[in-house]
Amino acid sequence: MTDKLSPQQRHKNMAAIKSKNTKPELIVRKWLWSRGFRYRINSPRLPGHPDLVLRKYRTCIFVNGCFWHGHKVQVESRASAMGDRNEELHDSACCRIPTTNREFWVRKIRRNMRRDVVIQQRLAQMGWHCMTVWECELRPSVREQTLRSLAFTLNRIWLQDHSLRRPYPQRQEEELVQIAAEERFERQ
Q1: pTM of the shown model
Q2: Using CA atoms, how far apart are residues 62 and 163, in angstroms rounded to an integer?
């Protein structure tokens, strides 16, 4: 199937696609802000410049487009006659790889997927939690469920990070003090 647009028109369309302040990102940001979550946007201090950084929760949230990051794309690895391994990507319900210039798009999406994994590993090594919200999870039919689970996960992270990790130690004086329910002396 050939492209319906000329190369110049296609270039203009692709150049107009934004990487910041996208509609899915704005949906997540507005919902979190309205629920009292405070965050920083595209922090340049962290690897990968996460879309949202919640320092209180030590959490980075990436709002990814399904096409650009290969959501639910099946990767098939096969060996060629030369002995090197090739990976073929197969379409998913929310990510259809173009047939025009397919090799370019497969390389680009595969490179984005690998970079995402590396960035999340680096953030985890630095002690950050990473969450990914996919564009298809923000469709109106499942949006509320996705955003509520996001808030639930953030609250759970906060509780786990701020809970007592070991039981409260008893001091020796506390062992000697009798509890009100205990009898002080024996009756005769």
Answers
A1: 0.73
A2: 26
